[in-house]
Amino acid sequence: MAESDDGHHIEIVPDDSTWGGVEENVEDPEEVRVIFSALDSFFQYSKVSHFNVTHLRRQAFYALPQEQWKLLAAPPFNFLETLDKTDDAIDENAELARIIARFGLQSFRMMTTDPEGKEPTMPQEWAGVAKHSDVDKARSTIRQFYRDWTAAGATEREASYGPIMKALAAEKERHPDTPHLKVLVPGAGLGRLVFDLVANGYTAEGNEISYHQLLASSYILNSCTAAEEHTIYPWVHSFSNHLNRANHLRGYRVPDIHPASVLAATPNTGEMSMCAADFLCLYSDEDHEAQYDAVASVFFLDTAPNLIRYLETIRYCLRPGGVLINVGPLLWHFENNAPGNHGQDTDVEHDPKSSSGIADPGSFELADDEVIALLEKMGFVVEWHKTGVDAPYIHDSESLLQTTYKASTWLARKPLDVTSS
């Protein structure tokens, strides 16, 4: 398994019986802290969710005048019963969260074992280290299983991943002598697009900076034993905008397919890998120069504080003639952040040779037409561009609040004459 100074690699390569997992030791103290914060947040999900979602509501409920709470406790409202069912749903989510955390502890070999040797637990010095923001990410990760790994999420996967697949199919026709086009998926999340690419005959590499996402994707791809093994309740954390309680408390089976079984039954699959790393640091090194036939960007480019750096890195790691295929909105993640060095305090002038990656100073936000202009200024050839493409994201179709991105989709090619870029 390859080791990088910039990232902890997770090789996910199916063989006859098993998938590889996360095996390397992590020595950087800050990275260890980040990993344990992510692991602990999955363990804390249950306690925090029960407190925020049901405990505080019970307190508020019993603060009502007695005649009012008795009215709401009786049919047809049965509000206390709703809170009990909500607790049950949180327990189901929490079971998946704990399994992800235990799998992560085993994978990173950072666990302790209880006296009876039953299951891995957090080392005592790291228990409780997760902050509220970490637990929020764990909750968001559980909800994201709806998008990537449920049958109901197929509609929004088609909206976001369908244009990628269609564009890559056209690229495959352009390269009939290349058996497996090599595709990089930055911001790979829970890994479904990477998996689908491999199942369709591409060699796909996912990159993800979030350990919450990596731990969850590694579990579902490596260790989940069957389709529909778990049930998640993605809408349970909020009581707003529900048409009825049945929808509020609706569960979805995860995963909709068993990844290992699908690949074992599919001929001519590509190879798959996932890595945890800062995209800018890892893919700007000389080992990644001109290595990919395509970069598939789905809801990714707007995570850039500095889009120029993202596009420079993509241009660098694409082969001449390679393509950047994009689907997504422009919800700039660092908008309104204080100026400076994202996450680092320093007055030292930025040195490109010692880049901190996404933490480098400086940021800006562009409109969609300006993104296209920037692509062209940087030497890409924009071959097609569509706007207004409906792209829901963890979308509850039964909610009274409907929010759907109108995504921009386009394909930009790195010229064969690299000197022109």
TrEMBL record:
The alphabetized UniProt keywords are: Methyltransferase, S-adenosyl-L-methionine, Transferase
State the Pfam families in the record. CARME
Q: What class of enzyme is it?
A: transferase
Chain residue ranges for the region called Disordered? 1-21, 341-361
**Could you tell me the Gene Ontology terms of the biological process aspect for this record?**
methylation
The keyword Chloroplast is annotated on this UniProt entry: no
The Swiss-Prot or TrEMBL record describes its family as follows: Belongs to the carnosine N-methyltransferase family.
Can you say what this protein is called? carnosine N-methyltransferase
Q: What is the lineage of its organism?
A: Eukaryota, Fungi, Dikarya, Ascomycota, Pezizomycotina
